[in-house]
Structure formats: C-alpha cells, structure tokens
C-alpha cells in the first residue's frame, strides 16, 4: 500500500520542505525530510539591464526583502514557482518559457536578446548553459550571485535509510541535491551502499539535468515528470512506488 512508501525529500529547510512533507502525506506516503540545501545570501542585487532573468523562488524572495524591483526591465522567470513568487512580490512577469530549464529559457529568449543587456540573478550553482546560450544569441550577459547553496550540517539520514534498505522512494529536485546526498553518504562511509539502496527504490528527478547528474554517479532514475514541478514529481514517484509494495 502507498502508506508503506517511505519517500526521501531534500528541499531546503524552510516552507519548501514543509510543503513537500504535506504533499507527500496527502498522497499517502511517509515523508523522510532530509534537507540537502541551505541558503547563504550574498546580499547582492542585479545590475541594471534590459532583461532580468530569475531562476528560483529563493532569489525572488531575497530580492524582494532587499527592496529590489525590476523597474522597466523585461522580467523573465524560469518556471511557475519563480513567476508566482515574483507576482506575489508585486512584479510583472513578462516571460516564462514552455520548458522550465536553462535550455528552455535560452530557446525562449534567443530570438529577442541580440544586442541587448541581460542580467542573470541566481545561486552560485547555476548552469553555464544559460549564460553561454544567451551570449551565443548575441546578448551582453552579466551574472549576479544572489546566494550560495551549501549542505546543512547533520544531513544524511536518508542515505543511511537507503543503505539499510529502508527507503522506497527518493525525490531529487536539483543536481546539487544529488551531489549533497552522495557527500553525506560518503561522510558516513556508505556511499556505494546508499547508491545500491536507491537503485532498489523508485528514484525521481525533477528534470533532465538532475537525471543526468544522478546517472553519472550510477543512480538509476525511474521518474522524470512531464512538468518540472515538485508536485508533478511527487505524484509520479508515489504512484510508481506504491504498487511495488502492495501486500
């Protein structure tokens, strides 16, 4: 039964992990909350530009707290969560790509940015795909690091559970969550056992880049949702994991 699906979730230890736990509960799974990301703000704000690109809800919230506004810039958000946060801040969101990835943003903006200034404001772990793609499209691109993503002290209980065969599902929401999970496992001397445990479970990745990172470390990914949102990821993973554990 789905109640037996113990699902590890690695979102930052704020309202995102709380919402993830609530959602997994509502789907009949047993959430294993193991935050793998902590946010360290840099207190930087974007430079003036014709286009401003934001790639996370966290970035929006930090800029809103700092009193920043997009002004006359064309505001581009990578996906619905970022766009929703921007609208909550009272900003007008001008552009959201059909595909919620760096490559999707490049494809969406490329026809319009030749000769334009583009400010990309994000974490210190942003994909180079976005910067290179926009520059190749003729844009004058500048990047501002709004925050650093670090691994919280004490993270890794899910790695122990995976190694012990006590995890039925894992939901990775970025390449960094994969890397931090493996670092936490390595610290405990159980990296290979944790990977083996994941490969006996149902592993979900929020998008292709996360799947590729997992695969490069020997982790088999079973689920990549059609829409790159946590809700879609959780629903698909629990649905796949639940039948495996029927009695």
From TrEMBL:
Keyword annotations for this protein? Answer: Lyase
Which InterPro entries has this protein been placed in?
4pyrrol_syn_uPrphyn_synt_sf, 4pyrrol_synth_uPrphyn_synth, UROS/Hem4
Q: Which residues form the Tetrapyrrole biosynthesis uroporphyrinogen III synthase domain?
A: 20-234
Q: Work out whether the entry's keyword set contains Lyase.
A: yes
Molecular function terms, GO-annotated? uroporphyrinogen-III synthase activity
At the top of the EC hierarchy, this enzyme's class is lyase
Identify the Gene3D superfamilies for this entry: 3.40.50.10090
Gene Ontology biological process terms, A to Z? uroporphyrinogen III biosynthetic process
Please state the Enzyme Commission number of this protein: 4.2.1.75
Entries under PANTHER family matching the protein? BLR5956 PROTEIN
Name it: Uroporphyrinogen-III synthase
| UniProt organism field | Haloferax marinum
